[in-house]
Amino acid sequence: MIADAFVLARKDLLLEFRRREVVLGMIQYVVSTLVIVHFAILGADGSERAAAGMLWAAILFTAILSLNRCFAADQEEGALETLQLAPVDRAAIWLGKVLAQMAYLIAMELVALPAFWLFFFGDEGPAPLPVIAAVLLADLGLATVGVLVAALTQGARAGDVLLPVLFLPISIPLVIGAVTATLESFPDGDGTLRALGFLGLFDTLFALLAWGTFEHLTGE
């Protein structure tokens, strides 16, 4: 199943490499957010901490852009029905989509994180390693939950609207944990161990939930 998941993720990444419709849109969105926030709060008291919160808001809403296209190519080409009939575990479809979504998020963050650091953080900014750990754990949670919700809404009317309606409330605890980890990694913070542990717990619970329910969702 793991090998099948990597093959499916490779297929999505190859399609994105040829079309460049998801990652470029994500980068454009997050850079636009960066510029707006930079001019809105530059020089204000606590602007560094406000920027840390805005970083996660940008990551969350940018994730929705890629999730809206999660199953679009498969539906357009009729590949999703073929995958469901193929002799592979349907959980491999979910896992392949999760891997692809994480790759999109990481590609976007390779631009977003250095840019946010350049614009808002200096010597008084958060410690880089805890923030990177929070980003990777949050990416896993966003992809895990997002692909499950995308599968639930991919056949629905107005699915592009329904997806964020379902996805945002579920992902709010994850984002709160990520923001807490970022704020606690500032020099005057109390440490990020508890917040990172919460992110790990969130990822584990929702990964198990998605693993167990994805086959039934796609079957319906």
In short:
With 220 residues, the chain is an all-alpha fold. Helices cover 82% and strands 0% of the residues.
Feature tags:
220 residues, 82% helix, mainly alpha
The major pleated sheet works out as: none
User: Which of globular, elongated, flat, extended, rod-shaped describes the shape?
Assistant: globular
What is the count of distinct domains?
A: 1
Task: Report the strand count.
Answer: 0
Mean pLDDT comes to 82
Strand composition percent: under 5%
Tally of contiguous helical segments: 9
The class by helix and strand makeup works out as mainly alpha
Q: How far is it from the N-terminal to the C-terminal residue, by CA?
A: 21 Å
Order of helices and strands: HHHHHHHHH
Q: Spans of 5+ residues with little confidence (pLDDT < 50)?
A: none
Amount of helix: over 70%
Radius of gyration: 18 Å
